[in-house]
Structures are given as C-alpha cells and as structure tokens.
Design a protein that fits this description.
Number of helices of chain B: 22
Helix content of chain B: 25-40%
Number of strands of chain B: 23
Structural class of chain A: alpha/beta
Number of strands of chain A: 6
Distance between the termini of chain A: 21 Å
Largest sheet of chain B: 7 strands, mixed
Radius of gyration of chain B: 26 Å
Radius of gyration of chain A: 16 Å
Shape of chain B: globular
CATH class of the largest domain in chain B: Alpha Beta
Strand order of the largest sheet of chain B: 3-2-4-5-7-6-12
Order of helices and strands of chain A: EHEEEHEHHEHHHH
Oligomer: heterodimer
Largest sheet of chain A: 6 strands, mixed
CATH superfamily of the largest domain in chain B: Thiamin diphosphate (ThDP)-binding fold, Pyr/PP domains
Number of helices of chain A: 8
Number of domains of chain B: 4
Structural class of chain B: alpha/beta
Chain lengths: 184, 575
C-alpha cells in the first residue's frame, strides 16, 4: 500500500512498482485515487501482485508492506498492515486542516509508537534527499529507491520502469532521487 | 504484448481497436481518462462537449452517419444525457454506438451514489459490465458488434475500482470497419409520434432478442467449483467474491447486466443449496431472481450503501474477520482541501468574512464548504447553483437578494449554468452570480472547455467570452475581479449584492496547478512580527500552520499567492 497526501506523487510511485512487478512476471493490480479525494486529502494506492490477483483493493490486516509519504498517514493506515508486515515511511510531516484550524493536534512520536506496537519500521528523510536531488517533489521516487533496496528485483527493471513512467526532462532528476533513496 | 493499463485506458484501447472514429464526452470522475486516452490516438476524432447531453447527441449523429462512435460520462452525467438516451433507444444505430457510464460506489468524487443500471432498464438498451482492464477492452469491442447486430446503443457500465485500477492487457491491432452507408429513413430516425409508435414495437422485440442473446452470451460466465454455495455477481463484485471465496463457491459472473438472462440464472440456482447475489448499490439482479421465484440471499446481508471488498464478502459469508493493530492515539482526519495558491480561496474568504449565504455547485470550489471557510450552503448538481439561487430569492425576496450569491466554475457554467442565468435575466431576480473562472476544468484533472481557447487535442479553438455572453443573456452588470486581491473582491461582492438588478462577478485567475502559471517564491513569516493571532489560519491554506505559537509557512507548498499578506495585520509575512 502506498499512502500519503494528495499531490505527493503516490500515482507515479505505484506505477513504478506496478511496472517492475509486471516485468517480473507477476499478475498485478494497481488501484489509484483520482478526483476530489486527491486534493490535499489522505490518499491511498493499492499495489497487489501474485500468481492471480482478483480484487484490486486491500483491506484491514492484509498489507505486507505500507509505504508512507507522511508520518500521520502511516499512523492512519497502520490497521491495514498484516501482522508482521513492514512499514517504510518518510519522516515528513504535513498538518491536516483540523490541525491547522486548531480543532485537533498532530500526534507526537508517531514512528516510536508504531515501532512500540511491534512493527518493523524504516524511516527515511525522503524530502531532504529529494531536495538534495534537486526537487522536493521527487520524494516519491526517493522512497521507491528505499523500497528497491529492500526487494530482490533486478535494478534494470527499476531503471526501465522509471524510464517508462517519468517524462524525459525529469529523468535525470528522478534517477538521482532513486539512487539517494536506495543508498539512504 | 501485455501492458499494465488503467481500466479507462484499456477502454480507450478497445475504442481504438474497434475502429471508432468519433468520440464526444464531458469529463467526470471516474470516467474522464477514457476520453483523454482515446484522444491520444491520432486516428480518433475526440472532443470535450459542453455537457453530456450534447456529447451523446454528437455520438448518435456520428452513428447515424455510419461511423462507430462513443460518448463517456459519470453516473450523474447520464441523467443529463437521459433525454437523448431514451430516444436513441428507439432510433437505434447505424454505425455501432457505445456509451460509457462510470458509477462511483462509496462516492469517492460524487454527490450521490446512484446505480446506472436503472437507466439501462428504463431505456431498454443493452448494458454490459467488465470487471478488470482486460475485460474493459474486450467488452468494448464486443459491444460495437452487438450494437450493430441488434441495432441498439450499448452502455458499458464502469465503476471507480475498475476504471481506476491498472491490470494487464493484451494489445491488438486496430480494425476499422467500412463506414456504413447513410440512407434517409425517417421511420427510424424522425421520432415524431407516428414513427415512434412503430419504433416502440421494435424496442420491445429487440429487448426479447437481447434477453435470448444473454442466455448464451460469452460475456456471461459460469465458474463451477461444485459444492453447496453459488454466487451470482457482476463487475468488481465478482473480483471481491472470487478473492474471498476462491474455490469454496461456484460463480455465475454476469457480463450482460441488462437484460438479465432467465434460464441461465434458473439453471445455475438449481445446482446449489444456497445462492447469494453479490452486487454493489441496488438490488437489481436480486429482484430479477426473486421475480423468477428463486430463493436467493442478497441485500439482507450486504446492504445498499457504499463499496464492498473481499473482506466484506468474507465476513458476511464465512464469518471471518482479519486481525489488525491500530495506532495508539488519536489520528486527526485529513479531508481534501483547496490547494495552496488556489484562486478560489480569496473569493471564499470574502464570502465567509461577510457571512453570505452561498448557493454552490460541482467542482474543486465545492471544497469552500469545508472548515475553516465554511462558505457554502447548498450543492446539488451541475448548474444548480444559479437556478436554485433564483428560486431562493423568489421565495425570500429582497433581503435574500442582498445576502445570497451563487458560485459556479467556468466549465460548470458552460455545462448547464448559463440556462439558469437566462432564467434570472428573463424572470428577473436581483441575483448575484459569481463565476469562478480558473481557465480550466479543475476537479477532474485539467480538461479544456469552451472558455479556455483550446480543444481536447490541445489545438487552438474558439473561446466563449464570458463577459459578452452574460451581457447577451441580458445581465447589464458584469464585472471581473482578481481573487488574489481581497479588497477588490470584497468590494465587488458588496456592491453587486446591493445593486437593484441582477449581476455577474467573474472571479478570474488560472488554477495554480496549471503548468503555464508562474509561481512566486515561497513566503516566510517574520517570527518577531508574528503575534500568533491566527488570522492567517482563517484562509484554510494547507501551507500555513502554527508551531510554538507562531505561524509558519511550508516552503514546499507555498506558491507565493500573497493573500495571507493581505489578512495579516502585523505585516509579518513577506518574501
């Protein structure tokens, strides 16, 4: 599951992963969010693969891995993680509107609390690394670099997927972001 | 070659491979990408029409002319196009005609959760329903053949999870059938009473033929795993059922959802001890079964509301629930918001500040209803803001006219808002209508429209001049404001509400997400000037928050629109 805030680029991330998995020979389904819920809201993309995938959606307690672009979203979607599942999250924090208006508080120590619940967490400063690569918007690809470092899929598949999914003028930037993520 | 494709992209590929030459649609989530993807094929003429009714009439005209044609829309769009649909059912087609309608169970991006199958039943046309991307492409191609064979428009019913999921699709070549000859045939195409009576007989005969076809259609599939449990289902619900039940049940997967087969269903039911009907939204298959006297279990378990999933099916049929652990603590909700730099924000801030009653409409600006702006009183359907304002003002009189406005986007105004404005001019209320002209159709992801000066393919096109149009309609007071200029915007609203005649304010500023819009550098808060008064938070800008009692601006989101500098009384925000 790829979770984050609308506008953070979860679509591109899920398409990268989907293409890698398809090239690896799996049956793949990727379920995306478009339209109103995309506008700065909590967004989730499901990527499922295996010999045969029927439903494109993931329910509570079903995800093997959650990739989160933002800390609060990691907390929100935690119930979707399978027992023993992994969380890879960016350390970025974005206040949702109820926090901005003062109606709610942003929870403290999210990553520590998730770890305390027995979840294997990998935290990455994806925003910092994306800025280092040249553009804050590339934090999605930084995170996918980190994901790549924890999977056994051949590097060429990732490079091909980036070339397929990213417009040529941003290719160099995204390849750099991917490298920074993988080595983080 | 297998390719990962969105259901909507696969649908478009089906249009291409089936040799479609004319496409006309109006954008609407989750249907939009079908037409966007179709437009990428040079061989297909594709356009955005001003609304779904126009789109369907264009497609029907192209079909009568002898070509294969298509129009696409979301579920509520089919209400707008219902008028031509119900008579296209009578005229039938010449070249094949396919209509996409995309339902939105769960209302991810819609104002209601209606089930489009009712339109197929009521108009008596063939409706098919795919369950993944590969089927989207295949069902579309088959639909064109069926359209021509049975002389009927064919509706392909999509839903959010099929339209917006990617799965593998086998790519084939395009085959364009020769254009059919156009022969003048008023008995078929002129639907005046004398001829329409004859065509109604044809419609009923056709429905019987389609029902016979449905009995043996290859689009309907039985997956027989033996056992005691049978499941009748269609579309995405089939995928949920299959994932939850696997080989523990047998399936009748209906690809043809109108008309429904009779013997196929009866024979299936006879084989299993317990038969469940799993269908999202309304109980159409279930009611059909019960009319046949079949003892099936459906809505008493599954209900009419929202989306299903494999977990829903597993819980209802097997009584099993997944285990999971929740986050230890409160997780604040994150509703969608207007983007940083959104031109609608300044306008809604002025409406909110002056406590104005707002008759709203459908688009990104519907988010003006959310806190902290909370500047919207009603949202009904495309175009309703203007007509409902007129009714509101007729009912409540002069006081309402001085404190109530309609807000509507440029694309929605072209879709069905302008007829409401004609009504205001013609039937005279001193109403104030605000057109939020952000130079694009925003919510559905930046589609061109008749005001933008470009067509779907991105080529230059005639542009409607909104000021001149409003004047021609009969509105004398028409003015343009820049919503980034709060003082100007607020003054205009107050003056036009006070005016003793109808008026239009065009709040004009391009969407901040448009590629050609140049952004200014992110603004910063001068910490020692900030008194922590939180005035800037009233704008509801996602880039502004408070840390340790002082406002801070997120440089990754801020586009330097500057309206926060206008509300800050301490001059604490600058470059």
């Amino acid at each position: 599951m790829i979770v984050g805030v609308g506008g953070q680029g979860s679509l591109l991330a899920s398409r990268l992963l989907g293409n890698v998995l398809l090239a690896q020979g799996y049956d793949v389904k990727v379920s995306e969010v478009h339209g109103m819920s995309q506008r700065g809201g909590s967004v989730v993309t499901y990527v499922k693969y295996g010999d045969e995938v029927c439903s494109p959606v993931i329910e509570k307690g079903e995800a093997d891995v959650i990739i989160s672009f933002e800390q609060l979203e990691a907390a929100r979607w935690l119930p979707y993680l399978k027992k023993g599942g992994k969380l890879i999250t960016s350390t970025q924090k974005l206040d949702p509107m109820p926090v901005i208006t003062g109606a709610a508080e942003y929870p403290a120590d999210i990553i520590e609390k998730i770890k305390a619940a027995g979840v294997e967490v990998t935290a990455v400063d994806a925003l910092g690394l994306a800025e280092q690569a040249g553009n804050a918007k590339a934090s999605n690809v930084v995170l996918m670099g980190k994901v790549a470092s924890q999977t056994e899929f051949d590097d060429k598949l990732w490079q091909d997927a980036i070339e397929q999914c990213v417009p040529p003028k941003f290719l160099e930037l995204n390849k750099k972001a991917f490298e920074l993520g993988r080595n983080a | 070659m297998k390719k990962l494709m969105l259901g909507n992209a696969a649908f478009a590929r089906g249009l291409y491979e089936a040799g479609v030459t004319v496409v006309s649609s109006y954008p609407g989530t989750p249907s939009t990408e079908i037409t966007e993807c179709a437009a990428e094929y040079d061989e297909i003429y594709a356009e955005w029409a001003p609304n779904e009714k126009v789109a369907m009439e264009v497609a029907l005209g192209a079909s009568i002319a002898g070509s294969r044609s298509f129009c696409g829309m979301k579920h509520v769009g089919l209400n707008v196009a219902a008028d031509p649909l119900y008579t296209a059912a009578y005229t039938g087609v010449n070249g094949g005609m396919v209509i996409a309608v995309a339902d939105d169970p769960g209302m991810h991006s819609s104002q209601n959760e209606q089930d489009s199958r009712h339109h197929a039943i009521a108009s008596k046309v063939l409706m098919v329903e795919p369950s993944d991307s590969a089927e989207c492409k295949e069902f579309v191609k088959t639909s064109f053949e069926l359209s021509e064979e049975f002389d009927t428009p064919v509706i392909v019913r999509m839903c959010t999870r099929v339209a917006h999921s990617q799965s593998a699709v086998e790519i084939c070549d395009r085959v364009v059938p020769p254009q059919k000859e156009y022969v003048k045939n008023p008995q078929k195409y002129v639907m005046m009473p004398a001829f329409a009576r004859g065509r109604h007989v044809f419609v009923e005969e056709r429905l019987e033929k389609l029902r016979t076809y449905a009995e043996t259609s290859p689009l309907n599939k039985i997956i027989d795993n033996g056992g005691d449990i049978g499941i009748i289902t269609s579309g995405i619900s089939y995928q949920y059922a299959r994932e939850a039940m696997g080989d523990k049940a047998s399936y009748l997967k209906l690809g043809v959802v109108n008309p429904l087969p009779v013997d196929l269903i009866k024979n299936f039911c006879a084989k299993y001890k317990t038969v469940y009907v799993i269908e999202e939204l309304d109980d159409i298959i279930e009611t059909h079964c019960k009319k046949l006297g079949l003892n099936v279990i459906g809505k008493e378990l599954f209900g009419y509301i929202g989306e299903f999933s494999q977990a829903v099916v597993a819980e209802k049929l097997l009584g099993v629930k997944n285990e999971y652990s929740a986050f230890d603590g409160n997780v604040p909700v994150r509703p969608p918001v207007m983007c940083a730099g959104c031109p609608h924000r300044g306008l809604f801030y002025c409406l909110s500040k002056n406590k104005i009653t707002v008759s709203g409409d459908i688009g990104c600006y519907t988010l003006g209803a959310s806190a902290p702006l909370s500047a919207m009183d009603t949202t009904i359907c495309m175009g309703a803001s203007i007509s409902a304002l007129h009714g509101f003002n007729k009912a409540r009189g002069a006081d309402a006219e001085k404190s109530t406005v309609a807000v509507i986007g440029d694309s929605t105004f072209m879709h069905s808002g302008m007829t409401g404005l004609v009504n205001i001019a013609y039937n005279a209320t001193n109403s104030t209508v605000i057109i939020l002209d952000n130079s694009i159709t925003g919510m559905t992801g930046h589609q061109q429209n008749p005001t933008t000066g470009k067509n779907l393919k991105g080529d230059p096109a005639a542009a409607v001049n909104l000021e001149e149009l409003c004047k021609a309609i009969g509105i004398k007071r028409v003015r343009v404001v820049d919503p980034y200029n709060l003082a100007e915007t607020e003054a205009a609203i107050k003056e036009e509400l006070a005016a003793e005649e109808p008026s239009v304010i065009i709040s004009r500023r391009p969407c901040a997400l448009l590629k050609y819009v140049k952004h200014k550098p992110a603004l910063k808060v001068v910490s020692d000037k900030c008194k922590g008064c939180k005035m800037c938070l009233k704008l509801g800008c996602p880039a502004i928050s408070v840390r340790d009692g002082k406002a801070v601006i997120d440089h990754t989101q801020c586009v330097g629109c500057g309206i926060c500098t206008e509300v800050c009384k301490f001059d604490a925000i600058g470059e």
